[in-house]
Amino acid sequence: MQRKNDALADKVLLSNAIFNGLEDEASPGFIALRGDRIAAVGRPEEAQAWIGVETVVYDLGDAFVMPGVHDNHVFFTGYISMHRGVDLTHTASIEEAIKLMLQEASNLPSGKDVNAYGWSEENWGSLPEQSLLDELFPERAVIAINLNKSYCWMNRLAQDKYQFSPDQCSAEARALLLQAMMQDHSLVKQEFMEFSRMLAARGVTSIKDIGFDRHSELLPIVKELQDEDELLLRFHFALEPVVEPLDISTGTQYKALYNGDHIRFQGYKLMLDGVVADHTGDMLEPYADMPGVTTLRPVDYNKIEESVLEADSLGIKCCLTAEGDAAIRQAVSMIIKCRDRQGNNHIRHSISDMEYPHPDDLIRMGEHEIFAEVYAQILLLNPTYEEAYMSVVAGKGNEYRFYNYKSMLEANVPITIGTDLPLFITSVPDSLYSASHRLFPDGSPAGGWYPDRGMPPSEVLKAWTINGARHCYMEEVTGTLEAGKYADIAVFDRNLLNASAGDIRDAQVILTIMGGKVTYNHSWNEG
């Protein structure tokens, strides 16, 4: 017996492989959507009762249906800095790049910056010289960041204007430049829409964006898109103090102002140590390749702890970025101190990066429900196992401690996944290749890199979905496929749980739905 029209579904998804996020396997079934919510989830034979003449039915066959993806660590501003201006990705020489940048300058108002991105020293044969830009562009700043974001080809005018040097071009170092790039409201709005569409094509329905200082340029744009019903993903955001010191008053204002299901403030990001690969990560034991050195960049932990405790006292959570085991230990201790002061009123603090944790601190994290934000695609930074740095900096006997997801899971650490985008572009298939199959881009090593230390595929998917929802205080309304929750759904063209290592990276999203609205359809052919 068919339901009354007002009880029928707007959309019904049928599939032989629905991963609801509550179980570890996928099974045949249907999902009925009405408005922005899931109306029902059930067995295939129950679907017909929800289908009327106006119901859009997606008969997906063996396609894999899962909750929408939440990327728990992205930098929109970093992304636009790698997509704004002249694309030098395919240039074969410095001369070709100069020609393109001169052409760009001729189309810009007098004095306006020339931005470029994507060049490679390997393609060009040498590192470009500053003097060339000084000579050709004497009256405008020129900034061209390379493909791996490790070097900015700049003239002197750009260095003086934005206060960073060519070989020190992290996102934090480029903060003044990124702030300037965010001033063009209409252009940034267009770029944010392109960014959102790109993520929707990868199954993403929610992000946590890291914004420097007050993030005041982007927030009005996101609110505008929400008011226009054009927001394609749930926008969570955290503030990272870079140009200015941590401003707790802004945090308290944002906590009151941005607390909805589409735009929500998620506290502060605070940097502790640097990067283990370049010896600025803070280690408990000296680096294997640098005897006597535990870090090249000392950390003022007392100052950071003061900020964490102040934020926690006001109910504002913090994400502490720590790579080395000494920094991770300090981060865990700071959060435990917050727990001791607040009793059972747990703020969902997290530690991001987590490259080289000590097993004892993973146990402490699990006991105190401290969230981990890991970059599950991380092995793809290294072209091959032979070129990876882990055994070099920590010693062959300790390299297994890097990215030790099994120990995190055994310690009951709640794991979420981010990308540090644009470090990586969100890819669930790539994360399974790296974190589950434990392979480098070339397929090495045979059998995987410490495969017993990886994450089972179902845990990877939960880290992308329900765990991210929990971390953002959204688990009651998103993160799993259950009746009553928002219809946030990603559909892949094959079963991600049993795809082989040789096949998984070819998996593609064919449909994304956020709040009942189709945000990406590979065919754009409903029926």
TrEMBL record:
Pfam families according to UniProt: Amidohydro_3
Coiled-coil residues: none
Molecular function, one GO term: hydrolase activity, acting on carbon-nitrogen (but not peptide) bonds
InterPro entries for this protein: Amidohydro_3 (IPR013108), Metal-dep_hydrolase_composite (IPR011059), Metal_Hydrolase (IPR032466)
Keyword Hydrolase: yes
Ranges that cross the membrane: none
Residue stretches making up the Amidohydrolase domain: 57-520
Signal peptide (from-to): none
Superkingdom of origin organism: Bacteria
Entry keywords, A to Z: Hydrolase
PANTHER family in the record: IMIDAZOLONEPROPIONASE, PROTEIN LONG AFTER FAR-RED 3
Designated name of the protein: Metal-dependent hydrolase
Organism field: Paenibacillus terrae
